[in-house]
Every structure is written in structure tokens, then in C-alpha cells.
Design goal:
The protein is α+β, with helices and mostly antiparallel strands. It is built from five helices and four strands; from the N terminus they run H-E-H-H-E-H-E-H-E. The chain has one domain. The longest helix is centred in the middle third of the chain and has 14 residues. The chain is globular. The protein starts with a helix and ends with a strand.
């Protein structure tokens, strides 16, 4: 696991910590924030209602024994690429079930055709929130900083999750 943590930092992560999949908090209310608070709802294959439900996410988490919570402070641009590279690195390290949840909505296409198969299936991943993961509760339980940014001058923390087996 140390090689995964080190690689995350080399790729630009601010923090990367090992968490148990059972420590990842999944709640149904999280998807309500997507449905009633995000203009991208239903417009992207990696977002609700197309992404895994909280119940499906809980089942997937139960099939893993390890996870790495990755934090990046500041801008989230390039975080998707960081996690894409980290997932591939983990796979090549022998974690054959490596799967990443990215921060925020997918930005691979200018517009997602939700009626067709994904044009980037090897790169696209759902966000933690889209799958019902309570990022605030999960980060706090892992001892990582997170809070509501109340103005443009505040520096946000973005999170991603890498499941490993």
C-alpha cells in the first residue's frame, strides 16, 4: 500500500490515506444534492440517475478490503488524470480490482450522449457523491481536512477514492 500512497503524492495529491471500505460512509441523501442542486443531473453517464445507486455502491464496497482516500487542495483540474494514472498504477502493482471514484462530474466530453454508450469507458468514472458517498463524513473519519467553502477566497479540498483488492 505504501507504493500507492507514494505514487499518489508523486502525481500531485496533497494527501493519500488508507481507509477501510467499511469506513466509507454511504447515504441516500447525498444523491438528493445531485438531483436538487446540480445542473448536470441526468446529463452525464457518470452522474445520477445513471451512476450506481447508494445501495449498489454499498454492495461494491463490501467486495473490497482496502481503499485509499486521496485529497488534493486547490483546483480540481487534472485530478481526474491523477486518479486515472493511480488506478492504472495500482492495477499494474497487482491490485487487479482497482477502481477509482473521481471528484466532480466527468469532463471528458463537451456534451455527454446519455442515450449512447460512453465514448470513454476506460477513462470515465463516477464521482463519490454521484454514488451516494458522503465525502464530508468519510474525510472527517479519516482525519483529513474538509469544510464548506463559504466564499471564492477559500481553498477547497477535493477528494477521490481508490478501491483496491
Amino acid at each position: 500500500m505504501q507504493s500507492i500512497i507514494q505514487k499518489a503524492r508523486e502525481l500531485g495529491a496533497t494527501d493519500a490515506v488508507v481507509v477501510g471500505p467499511g469506513d466509507v460512509v454511504v447515504s441516500h441523501w447525498v444523491r438528493l444534492k445531485c438531483q436538487f442542486g446540480c445542473s448536470g443531473y441526468g446529463r452525464n453517464l457518470t452522474c445520477p440517475p445513471h451512476s450506481p445507486s447508494p445501495d449498489e455502491t454499498s454492495k461494491v464496497l463490501s467486495e473490497y478490503t482496502k481503499a485509499v482516500l486521496v485529497r488534493r487542495a486547490g483546483m480540481w483540474s487534472e485530478f481526474r488524470r491523477l486518479m486515472e494514472e493511480l488506478e492504472r498504477f495500482a492495477f499494474l502493482e497487482g491490485y487487479y480490482k482497482a477502481f477509482a471514484f473521481y471528484p466532480g462530474p466527468c469532463d471528458l466530453c463537451a456534451e455527454c450522449d446519455v442515450e449512447a454508450p460512453c465514448r470513454h469507458p476506460t477513462e470515465a468514472r463516477p464521482s463519490m457523491e454521484a454514488c451516494g458517498i458522503d465525502v464530508f463524513a468519510t474525510a472527517k473519519a479519516a482525519g483529513l481536512p474538509i469544510g464548506v467553502v463559504s466564499g471564492r477566497e477559500g481553498e477547497p479540498n477535493f477528494y477521490a477514492l481508490l478501491l483496491l483488492e
